[in-house]
Amino acid sequence: MVGDKMEKKEEKKVALEESKSKKSLIIGGVIVGILLIALICVYFIFVPKISLNGKDKVTIKINDKYVESGAKATATFKDVTNDVKIKGSVNTEKPGKYEIEYIVKEGLFTKKVKRVVEVIDDIAPVIELTGSKETSICPNSEYTEEGYKATDNYDGDITNKVKKETKDELVIYTVKDSSGNSATVERKVKKQDKEAPIISLKGNKTVYVKLNSKYNESGVTAKDNCDTDLTEKIKAKVSDIDEEREMIINFGVRLIFGELPKILILFIIGFVLKMGWQTLLLFFLIAPYRSFTGGIHLKTHLGCMLTTSCLYLGPIIVTKYFQINNDLILYVFTAIITIFSIFIIAKYAPADTENIPILTKKERKAKKIKSYISLAVLLTIIIFVPDKTISYMIVYAIFLQNLTVLPISYKLTNNKHGYEVYGTEETT
């Protein structure tokens, strides 16, 4: 019994101590909570607050103007923005990161915030080449640098940093500034010889020699921009005056006894068929176009006469029996013939023959240009001439002439181009 009582007393004592401990903890917690609340109140009431106007990280380009956005500040429920002090500066002429610090002090409390301003250089340097971006040198020569200059908006003159690279016909110049911006330019260097040699005669260009006397050569020199002295490679040729006279005489005989009779017979046939003025008109209109574009020539006089008659009398006869009195059809037909003619001129004209070869590039180019001009004149007449009978005649004649230029016509008539007979290598 006594033991039980003692145990009960101990239990009551322990319970009492635990109760006191709990009360102390509760009281302590309440006190701490009150203190925290008080500190929070002090913080919100007395400690100043700063908020940045704008972003806390700002990026601007070099040499641009930095505009300070400032900051707002409050303390003890009042605006203290005017009390904010700003420390730090931004050098917009130099790339880098700059810190701007904003400070406000209220009583015993001080508040600070920072803004980071980064000045960047994103402008590439400039490379200026001395001379042309395209130049030519002799095939066996090495390119001599004409010069260059590199400048940067921040680094200034950076010519010494330029790197050169030669690739095929290009000289590539590359430079990079301190901010990592790079620039590249190219110079095209063609290895070719565009200048012809220069031949210089010693003495007068015209020399008089007595009949049956010996001609003494005065001498000649030849210089070239790439090959220098070419005197040893000069080939002299004495013109055969008798040959030239023979060629002129042969041409005159061929004209008098060959071409003129055919033209005369053509006009006679035209007048007999009561198509005289049409024959004359068509001949003078189409003859230039045929002269420039070329075409087949039959080797016999009879064949040549038949070809000429078909070319100049055929369109007149066809127009007489197959003319359509409709302007739209005429213009459509003209458009088709125009496209066909342009193709023929571009692809095959001028079409020469064995008897009248065209071996120089200059002459071929000139005849091709004249072919286009002659075609343009004929098309203008077709469109604007009041008499559509004439228009139809011209269209049919152009079409027939174009057929004489085609390779199939050469094959069927056993004709050959002049360059096929005398060689395909053209001279200027």
Q: What structural class is derived from the secondary structure elements?
A: alpha+beta
Task: Write down the secondary-structure element order.
Answer: HEEEEEEEEEEEEEEEEEHHHHHHHH
Give the fraction of residues assigned to helices: 40-55%
What is the tally of beta strands?
17
Number of domains: 4
Shape designation: elongated
Cα(first) to Cα(last) distance is 146 Å
Radius of gyration: 51 Å
| Unreliable segments of 5+ consecutive residues | 240-253, 424-428
- Quaternary state of this entry equals single chain
Biggest sheet record: 4 strands, mixed
Mean pLDDT: 81
Residues in β-strands, percent = 15-25%
Contiguous helical run count: 9
Looking across the biggest beta sheet, what order are the strands in?
2-7-6-5
Describe this structure in words.
This protein is of the alpha+beta class. The protein has four domains: 49-120, Immunoglobulins (Immunoglobulin-like, Sandwich), CATH 2.60.40.10; 126-191, Immunoglobulins (Immunoglobulin-like), CATH 2.60.40; 198-233, no CATH class; 241-422, no CATH class. It contains nine helices and 17 strands. The protein has helices at 2-46, 241-272, 276-293, 301-322, 327-347, 361-384, 388-405, 407-412, 418-422; strands at residues 49-52, 57-61, 71-75, 78-79, 85-87, 96-106, 109-120, 126-129, 134-137, 148-152, 156-157, 163-167, 170-176, 182-191, 198-201, 220-224, 228-229. The strands form five sheets. The chain has a four-stranded mixed beta sheet, with no helix packed on it. Strands 9-14-13-12 form a four-stranded mixed beta sheet, with no helix packed on it. Strands 1-3-4 form a three-stranded antiparallel beta sheet. A hairpin with a 2-residue loop joins β12 (163-167) and β13 (170-176). α2 (241-272) packs antiparallel against α3, α2 runs parallel beside α4 (301-322) and α3 packs parallel to α7. The longest helix has 45 residues, at 2-46. The model is unreliable at 240-253 and 424-428 (pLDDT under 50).
